[in-house]
Design goal:
Elements (H helix, E strand, L loop, with lengths): L1 E8 L4 E9 L7 H12 L16 H17 L13 H16 L13 H4 L1
Antiparallel strand pairs: 1-2
Helix pairs in contact: 1-2
């Protein structure tokens, strides 16, 4: 399992994505996954963690539940994680599709709009 961090970089002025570490688990259970994640993330402030992405629901739903329970026991005031479902990419993509349909925005015309890069970066 690779641990990838996505965070706001003040230095870069944008969201940065960085490889953090790997845990070699093979097929595992949620409890072992929790141990590995806690060990991997121990140098970080858990209150700043917003969301954990997953690539499949079976072990991951239980893992998310026990991860949240574990953090709540350590700190009852710890913020809850944002739950984007078992595949955050599909949830976000579906949200954009719905927004486009409801606002009648034509997303496919954006590449054809002439604009200088400095205005959007």
């Amino acid at each position: 399992m690779d641990i990838i961090l996505r965070y706001w970089s003040e230095r870069e002025g944008k969201v940065a994505v960085r490889y953090f570490t790997s845990e070699f688990l093979g097929h595992t259970q949620a409890e072992k996954l929790l141990e590995s994640i806690n060990r991997s993330l121990s140098p970080l402030d858990p209150k700043k963690l917003l969301q954990i992405s997953m690539d499949g629901p079976t072990v991951n739903w239980k893992f998310l539940r026990i991860f949240q329970e574990d953090k709540s026991k350590e700190d009852p005031d710890a913020p809850k994680l944002i739950n984007l479902g078992s595949c955050g990419l599909h949830v976000v993509h579906g949200s954009f599709q719905t927004g486009e349909r409801e606002t009648e925005t034509l997303m496919n015309v954006f590449p054809n709009i002439v604009i200088t890069k400095s205005l959007v970066t």
